[in-house]
Design goal:
Blueprint: E1 2-6, H1 12-21, E2 25-29, H2 33-40, H3 51-60, E3 64-67, E4 78-81, H4 97-106, E5 119-122, H5 130-138, E6 144-147, H6 157-162, E7 167-171, H7 175-188, H8 190-193, E8 199-203, H9 204-235, H10 239-247, H11 268-281, H12 289-312, E9 321-325, H13 340-350, E10 354-358, H14 362-369, E11 374-375, H15 379-382, E12 388-391, H16 396-399, H17 403-407, E13 414-417, H18 424-429, E14 433-435
Parallel strand pairs: 1-2, 1-4, 2-3, 4-5, 5-6, 7-8, 9-10, 9-12, 10-11, 12-13, 13-14
Helix pairs in contact: 1-3, 9-11, 9-12, 11-12, 12-13
The structure holds 1,4-dihydronicotinamide adenine dinucleotide and uridine-5'-diphosphate-glucuronic acid (UGA).
Uridine-5'-diphosphate-glucuronic acid (UGA) binds at residues 125, 150-154, 215, 218, 222, 256-258, 260, 262-265, 267-268, 329-330.
Length: 440
């Protein structure tokens, strides 16, 4: 099938490449000319394991191209919308400017397609009610609108796109449109559906809510364990053992129970806030007041990490040398949107410390974006002369560090393990003062 993907960021570029990988003829459209140039050359504009290969292979095979010109999507039958929906400036609500602009630019190119109904498929994460509004904008063209939320995780984006846990179709209310839309989307996802991936068919509102409910649940799970970490810190208990023990209960499960400096990224933080804002508009803000606490607990983890650093150097950060390992919001990604690591590094620098930061993938990006920051090429260089080392993004490279070897480079062997990723016994045995989160 001929497919377009509008918005070629972390979601859209991977979706476009994966749709080509399963045999479709795909054009990716983005307003960012530099990104389009890189993608057209088969080069990933961001770090995502496995993506480069899928991208390069499909561009070379001629199944995947990129453009800034919406006219290039005119012969596609299915148009995915994957533009950003960031937090609006000065508000907790989602900024829908990019979604609206994408639809406005798309509509003049929509029309009858010889192979069946033309579909506009929303993948961006939007406030409930957006799909119904956009369906009216699209309706005069004869195209149908479907909401098909995306659940991929950065770092696993290719695998999650080609083999998701589930696929959700939010379909139009008109039965004929719903059937035609479902059958067309089934044809798009045939290779995935053949793997027996659960496919759930809902109305627009349910599909939109599934997405924000899932992210809210994940954020809540992380803040729950971080709240337990606060209790562990007050009592001398160990949150890693607590998480392991409760995680053995099938009803709770072991995943997303890693206490630390909390969640960040381009999605969980802004999605829970946009959800609260939308609930307020709908007059049901009370239903989501718990998410405010989820957000507060998460914020407290960042200020707590700054406090740990301040205490480690005797109460005054000014003039101290702090080495920060990790800048991305999670390992295996170079994404620094709302990154706890970067936020903490900034706060510590703001208190007068001399901060040096290193990150295997985000480091070079940071060095370009933030000439004011000292970015080191690797951990060994970063820790030279440090009064405190802080591990804030748990890259495997950092987990594998040899505490004895590293000790030779630092001024004081003091490590704050903001992700509980290291073995306290090994670090202490090598002569370090080890401080984890919520563990003795
Ligand atoms: N990053 C992720 O892992 C996931 C993201 N999402 C959702 O997907 C959406 C996109 O997120 P990301 O890919 O992370 O954002 P992003 O910021 O990486 O990418 C958005 C892209 O859209 C482009 N764009 C903006 N306006 C445009 C327009 N009018 N026409 C064409 N392109 C335009 C931008 O230049 C950018 O390349 C958001 O709603 C997000 O919540 C959902 C699941 C996973
Ligand atoms: O809507 C989205 O964009 C995506 O948001 C998250 O994916 P992602 O942001 O890539 O990353 P996660 O793996 O969820 O991690 C988010 C943050 O939580 C932190 N985290 C995660 C797990 C944990 O136990 N503890 C913890 O602090 C991570 O370090 C990271 O900062 C969801 O997991 C995806 O399903 C969703 O599609």
């Amino acid at each position: 099938m001929r497919i377009s993907v509008i918005g070629c960021g972390y979601l859209g570029a991977v979706h476009a490449a994966c749709m080509a990988e399963v045999g479709h003829d795909v054009v990716g459209i983005d307003v960012d000319a530099a990104k389009v140039a890189l993608l057209s050359a088969g080069q990933a504009p961001f770090h995502e394991p496995g993506f480069n290969e899928v991208l390069a292979r499909n561009v070379a095979a001629g199944r995947l191209r990129f453009s800034t010109d919406f006219a290039d999507l005119a012969d596609a039958q299915v148009h995915f919308i994957g533009v950003g929906t960031p937090q609006a400036p000065g508000s907790i609500a989602a900024d829908l400017t990019y979604v609206d602009a994408a639809i406005t630019a798309l509509v003049p190119h929509l029309g009858e397609h010889p192979d069946g109904p033309t579909l506009v498929v929303g993948k961006s994460t939007v406030p409930v009610g957006t799909a119904a509004r956009l369906a009216e904008v699209v309706a005069p063209t004869g195209a149908h609108l479907v909401w098909n939320p995306e659940f991929l995780r950065e770092g696993f984006a290719v695998q999650d796109t080609l083999s998701p846990d589930r696929i959700v179709y939010g379909l139009p209310t008109d039965p004929a449109q719903a059937t035609a839309s479902r059958d067309t989307l089934d044809a798009v996802y045939r290779t995935l559906l053949d793997q027996d991936i659960p496919r759930l068919v809902t109305d627009y509102a349910t599909a939109e809510l599934v997405k924000v409910a899932a992210n809210s649940f994940l954020a809540t799970k992380i803040s729950f364990i971080n709240a337990m970490a606060e209790l562990c810190e007050a009592t001398g208990a160990d949150v890693t053992q607590l998480a392991e023990a409760i995680g053995h209960d099938d009803r709770i499960g072991p995943k997303f129970l890693k206490a630390g400096i909390g969640f960040g990224g381009g999605c969980l933080p802004k999605d829970i806030r946009a959800f609260m804002a939308r609930a307020g508009e709908l007059g049901v803000d009370q239903a989501l007041t718990f998410l405010r606490e989820v957000d507060n607990i998460n914020d407290r983890r960042r200020s707590h990490a700054v406090e740990l650093a301040r205490t480690a150097v005797g109460g005054e950060l000014s003039g101290k040398r702090i080495a920060v390992l990790g800048a991305a919001f999670k390992p295996n990604s170079d994404d620094m949107r709302n990154s706890p690591a970067l936020d903490i590094a900034n706060a510590i620098a703001g208190q007068g410390a001399s901060v040096v930061i290193t990150d295997p993938a985000a480091g070079p990006v940071l060095a370009r974006q933030r000439p004011d920051m000292e970015v080191a090429p690797d951990a060994a260089t970063a820790v030279a002369g440090a009064d405190v080392v802080m591990l804030l993004t748990e890259w495997q490279d950092f987990r594998d560090l040899d505490p004895a070897e590293l000790k030779a480079h630092v001024a004081t062997p003091w490590i704050i393990d903001g992700r509980n990723a290291l073995d306290p016994v090994a670090w202490r045995a090598a002569g370090w003062t080890y401080q984890g989160i919520g563990r003795p």
